[in-house]
Amino acid sequence: MITRLYNYWYNIKETLKDKKGQGMVEYALIIGLVSVVAIAILGSMGGGIVGKFQEIVTALTTTTTP
């Protein structure tokens, strides 16, 4: 009985030490974090970017109109 319990416990420890998918999970977490930060930055800068493009369009239309 004790031997079987020890073998069961040993199998659980060995399963938990298996790190085959650890690298892929870490890369997925990093990619997720970078995408959240990029979305937040672009969201906060969105109004400024639209404003600059509007200034460019206004400058181009006023200088080319006779």
Overall description:
This protein has 66 residues and is mostly helical. It is 89% helix and 0% strand. The chain has 2 helices and no strands. The model has no long low-confidence stretch (mean pLDDT 82).
Main sheet record: none
Distance between the termini: 98 Å
Average the pLDDT over all residues and give the rounded result. 82
Strand fraction equals: under 5%
Brief descriptors of the model:
66 residues, mainly alpha, 0% strand
How do the strands and helices of this protein lay out in sequence?
Layout: H1 2-17, H2 22-64
Question: What's a quick, concise take on this entry?
Answer:
The chain is mainly alpha-helical. Helix content is 89%, strand content 0%.
